[in-house]
């Protein structure tokens, strides 16, 4: 493999992994607080269409990215009101949020189908970006790629090196105990869910503004579900999200290269690879239930309400 092909493959993997990393980082924080939001796919789609629409109409990619985060957060707010305030079932509400998000995004984006938008600008640092091999990989990405790493690093610092992160994890592990010593369980979970929604919206924005800079109905193609699986794959540990996101990003890109290598594998089967890998990983992980019980937030998916 020559250098040009190697760089091209690595850049493709980074592009495929970034929306997964963004969405999974947000969902990790949400689940660490004890909230299970299965509506990641819907939030990503709304973020994708809102970010694209704002960018196209205003000409500002920055406004589009901010709008995408707000769109995802608004979807998470709907989920939070239903589950945290009205105590609706989190699993059923998350599934409903995905269905709602798919329909809403299709309706909002109907007039934008097929319209291109300028791709998010890439970083260019004289001399550094021009370095062979590593230049374009390390110093030639767009802002959301770098933000995905910053967000992951910030999440690690917040969860494991701050008092607020300790409180959030305590709420996820024992909301009754956290409430008993005076912590606002519902407010903390609202904040975590909104952060998760905003990150999912950014993941969607990356798809419509950078990965394929245009809007297409259902363009997430199941990535929201893969992001959910990544959190379990990582056993709720942030650093493992990075490994998982790039592993699945590599599998996603592999399907395109397999078809060009003449192996005679049906295109339909190759397109199934990321989803087959997701199922295989979840099956393997589920065989070690002790590790899941040890790392999963004890109150994940459980409603909290003040009694007495």
TrEMBL record:
<feature type="transmembrane region" description="Helical">
    <location>
        <begin position="145"/>
        <end position="168"/>
    </location>
</feature>
<protein>
    <submittedName>
        <fullName>ABC transporter permease</fullName>
    </submittedName>
</protein>
<feature type="transmembrane region" description="Helical">
    <location>
        <begin position="241"/>
        <end position="258"/>
    </location>
</feature>
<keyword id="KW-1133">Transmembrane helix</keyword>
<keyword id="KW-1003">Cell membrane</keyword>
<feature type="transmembrane region" description="Helical">
    <location>
        <begin position="219"/>
        <end position="236"/>
    </location>
</feature>
<feature type="transmembrane region" description="Helical">
    <location>
        <begin position="180"/>
        <end position="207"/>
    </location>
</feature>
<keyword id="KW-0472">Membrane</keyword>
<keyword id="KW-0812">Transmembrane</keyword>
<feature type="transmembrane region" description="Helical">
    <location>
        <begin position="61"/>
        <end position="88"/>
    </location>
</feature>
<dbReference type="Pfam" id="PF02653">
    <property type="entry name" value="BPD_transp_2"/>
</dbReference>
<feature type="transmembrane region" description="Helical">
    <location>
        <begin position="264"/>
        <end position="285"/>
    </location>
</feature>
<dbReference type="InterPro" id="IPR001851">
    <property type="entry name" value="ABC_transp_permease"/>
</dbReference>
<feature type="transmembrane region" description="Helical">
    <location>
        <begin position="94"/>
        <end position="113"/>
    </location>
</feature>
<feature type="transmembrane region" description="Helical">
    <location>
        <begin position="33"/>
        <end position="54"/>
    </location>
</feature>
